[in-house]
Structure prediction request, 88 residues.
Amino acid sequence: MNKEDLKAIQELLREELKPIKSQLKENTDILKALGHKVEVNKAEIDKISNDTAHISGHLKSIGENIDAVKEVLGRHEVDITVLKRRPV
Prediction:
């Protein structure tokens, strides 16, 4: 093989590799975009988890307040029953 043959082979290889290089760049760009999207989604999920924890805390507090109101109402019901039984 002479120099001209080697140059021809090199040029042929360069031409054959162009679409592969282009596809590799496109794939790399897609992977970077997907990686960014994963980070965004994770941040959104973390925010939702945080919001859910806050809501859960508020619901527990509301439940405790309802229990306290039930206790007060129960005592009032007992007082009303006692007063109804008393002669006037």
